[in-house]
From TrEMBL:
SMART domains: acidPPc. Signal peptide: none annotated. Residues 1-22 are annotated as: Disordered. This is Phosphatase PAP2 family protein. It comes from the Bacteria. Gene3D superfamilies: Phosphatidic acid phosphatase type 2/haloperoxidase. Pfam families: PAP2 (PF01569). The chain crosses the membrane at residues 26-46, 72-99, 106-126, 155-174, 186-206, 218-238. Residues 107-233 form the Phosphatidic acid phosphatase type 2/haloperoxidase domain. Keywords: Membrane, Transmembrane, Transmembrane helix.
Amino acid sequence: MPQPDSHQQPIARGAPPGPRGRVRPWPLTGLLLAALGFWLFGTIAAEFHEHPGTWLDARFTRFGETVRDAGLAGVFAVLTWAGDTLVVVPLGLAAALLLAVRFRTWVPPVLVAIASAGIGVLVGVLKNGISRPRPNPAAAVVEETGFGFPSGHSAHSAAVYLLLAVVSALLLRDRSRRDPTRDRHAALWSVLVIGAVLVVLAVGLSRVVLGVHAATDVLAGWALGTSWCLVLASLWRWGRAVRSPGG
């Protein structure tokens, strides 16, 4: 009678699917980073109430005056438009629609619309609730009204531009996993993220240079916008993992 092959492994019926059934850790990491960002925002807000006019505000105010004296105010007056609602919303939706066509999914425009509307509500409520005045208007290059904390330009640009970069990067990564021949396209994620970060930094810096925001206004706006971006991106990926745990 022939003996069974000693190298042959029995097939276990009903075995778990292995790593394909696990939820990827990215959503949880994103939510933890978002919580850290919201905590940072709260810390900055509390610090302002306890010690108005921090050393950071004073130092960056002097920096803004130096830049204006060097004749660069016009450059930053143009850069600041990248964070204006009239630019962020149509530009963000246009980019999101291009992603929708490219990847055949309506996720990008839906997320951008939620990001833009949500951060607008958050900033409006916080501005009126905290009621922090803007810096001395006599030193401002452009005229702005309303309260200063947090910076709406900084928050809006961070929420929308960073979200677009993250969503693009994740969609490119998904495509490269399904089709290894597209690995070269996946390398674009670093360019997208770095480019978005540079735009967000330029917008925030322009608000200080133009004299319409204190540095802590901008930092709080960055923290708020980035956290909101991470919340939306993480919930999207979490929902995707739950619907298709093997993907």
